[in-house]
Design goal:
This protein is α+β, with helices and mostly antiparallel strands and 374 residues long. The chain has helices spanning 8-16, 30-35, 52-68, 86-93, 103-109, 112-122, 218-235, 275-283, 347-373, and strands at 2-3, 22-25, 38-41, 77-78, 129-130, 140-144, 153-155, 165-169, 174-183, 187-197, 207-212, 238-248, 251-258, 297-304, 321-322, 336-344. The strands form three sheets. An eight-stranded antiparallel β-sheet has the order 13-12-9-10-11-14-16-15. Helix 4 (86-93) packs antiparallel against helix 5 (103-109).
């Protein structure tokens, strides 16, 4: 079973690895329906996360349906949206094996004070944090512990700090993320990717997209790999995890740990389709003998709605568009409309292709809206 705000990428990885995915998410997109053996739409949204009662009811319904068909649920893989509600993970674990980090591990690595202490112990550079209003506010950010997607970050202003919030000192650099496969004691680096923001009103650090491979000095790449593997071992991480850094010249700062499969699944599609199987096996303590193979350059980005869409028109979605809206679905201004992907010989090529494809999606949407209204 899969539970994530959008379950499509995990469902795609599950199919590639030979599993039948049962998906609970907030979108019920067309391609999620096609990939899932069964799926259920759960009421809620990315900003507020899953609520216990509706999610548990949906998971139980999917599990019971699988039993009727004579199939066995081997466990649950979770995506984003659980970092600030580990009690929900504990409830899920009472019914099915968690194919991911235990709630106690998630809670520790998403606790800003615990993460700062862990980084200090390992001598991994990490921005200063504070729970008191800093006097030099312009040099700090406000973050919500357990948030994701960049929507949990804001410039520090008096009176903005709420429950679960903390201050983190601003540091310079471009975003780079490592993807790891860990078994609780050791880990395997799968690769580094670059990320970028697509700002929206009130959300200057909103996640925009990711691409790989990233061009880094060999010494810096080795330092990021060493820091990632040291953190993974100390935190006893299992399965797929990503670690976010900011890099500036030869220097770097570790910003956050994402203790679950994340936004880079679309750009780490391995040659043999084994990625999610490797995740599950690593959660059980078995790392592969060698790293998975990732060919060519890959990139993916969100296309956000430039205006409110009361009813999405039927579209002939291109093969490189994912998370495809159902006809009739409402999309608020600045909400994700779909994901576009690109692959090619190098990073420059795929980034340019992404921009072209995002523009094509918005043109396609406009044309279909006009035709539907005619």
């Amino acid at each position: 079973m899969i539970a994530a705000p959008s379950g499509r990428a995990l469902a795609q990885a599950a199919r590639a690895a030979g599993y039948l995915p049962l998906v609970c998410d907030f979108f019920d997109d067309l391609d999620t329906r096609e990939l899932a053996a069964a799926n259920l739409l759960v009421e809620g949204d990315f900003a507020h996360g899953f609520e216990t009662a509706p999610l548990m009811a949906a998971l139980k319904a999917l599990a019971e349906g699988a039993q009727v068909e004579g199939k066995q649920v081997i466990g649950l893989v979770y995506g984003a949206g659980f970092e600030d509600r580990t009690g929900l993970l504990e409830e899920i674990a009472k019914h099915w094996p968690l194919l991911g980090n235990a709630p106690s591990i998630v809670q520790r690595v998403k606790d800003p004070a615990a993460l700062a202490e862990l980084c200090a112990d390992l001598r991994v550079p990490h921005p200063d944090i504070s729970f008191e209003t800093p006097t030099d506010g312009s040099r700090w950010l406000i973050k919500h512990a357990g948030g994701s997607g960049g929507v949990h970050i804001a410039a520090a202003e008096p009176g903005l700090l709420a429950n679960g919030g903390y201050y983190q000192r601003r540091v310079a650099g471009r975003p780079v993320s490592s993807l790891l496969l860990a078994d609780g004691t050791k880990s395997l680096m799968l690769g580094l990717s670059e990320q970028w923001a697509t700002p929206a009103p009130g959300q200057p650090w909103r996640f925009g997209g990711a691409a790989r491979p990233v061009s880094l000095d060999a010494t810096l790449a080795e330092a990021l790999t060493r820091a990632s593997c040291d953190i993974a071992a100390a935190a006893e991480l299992v399965g797929l995890n990503s670690i976010d850094f900011l890099v500036e010249g030869p220097d770097f700062h570790l910003i956050e740990i994402n203790p679950r499969p994340g936004a880079t699944l679309d750009i780490f599609r391995d040659h043999d389709g084994r990625l999610l199987r490797a995740h599950i096996e690593a959660c059980r303590g078995d790392l592969p003998d060698k790293s998975l193979r990732f060919e060519a350059a890959e990139a993916a980005s969100f296309v956000y709605a430039p205006y409110e869409i009361a009813s999405t028109p039927a579209c002939d979605w291109p093969i490189w568009a994912a998370d495809r809206q159902k006809p009739g679905s409402a999309v608020a201004e600045h909400d994700p409309l779909c994901t576009v992907t690109a692959s090619g010989p190098d990073l420059h090529f795929v980034r340019r292709l992404l921009d072209e494809r995002a523009a094509q999606i918005l043109t396609l949407l406009s044309i279909n809206q006009r035709e539907a209204a005619a």
